[in-house]
Amino acid sequence: MEQDDTPNENSLSREVQVKGSIKFGNKLTFDGTLEGEITTVDGVLTIGENGTVRGDVTSKVAIVSGKVHGNITVRERCELHASSELIGDLKAVHLVIEGGATFVGKSDVSPNRSAAKDVAVPQKEERQKIGALR
Predict the structure, then answer these.
(1) Straight-line distance from the first to the last Cα atom of the chain, in angstroms, rounded to the nearest whole number
(2) For residue 114, is pLDDT > 60?
(3) How is the chain split into domains, by residue range?
(4) Single pTM value for the model
């Protein structure tokens, strides 16, 4: 099974400098410098501590330890680690920000609507029942 997993994991080291767009499939660890955008439909993007992206990021999951000067749009989860710097807007379903992270921009964090309805309605009903019992 290791042979099947290996080709799906890509890595670009800190010596790599790219001007243009990067598109990938499953997993990409980017630790270089990019002037352009990174795009994937179902992939997981990790921007390492040395990684710098000047452009937009679109992915399923983004894990940021480096710098992004652009907008991040993810379908599921975005993690901004302590060493990260995001200068731009962020749109995600779930957002994790560690202490020490720098984030300058607007965030739109909202679970998908069907999940929000399932969670919100029972909580409101429970609160009303509890309030009525007291």
Answers:
(1) 57
(2) no
(3) 2-133
(4) 0.77
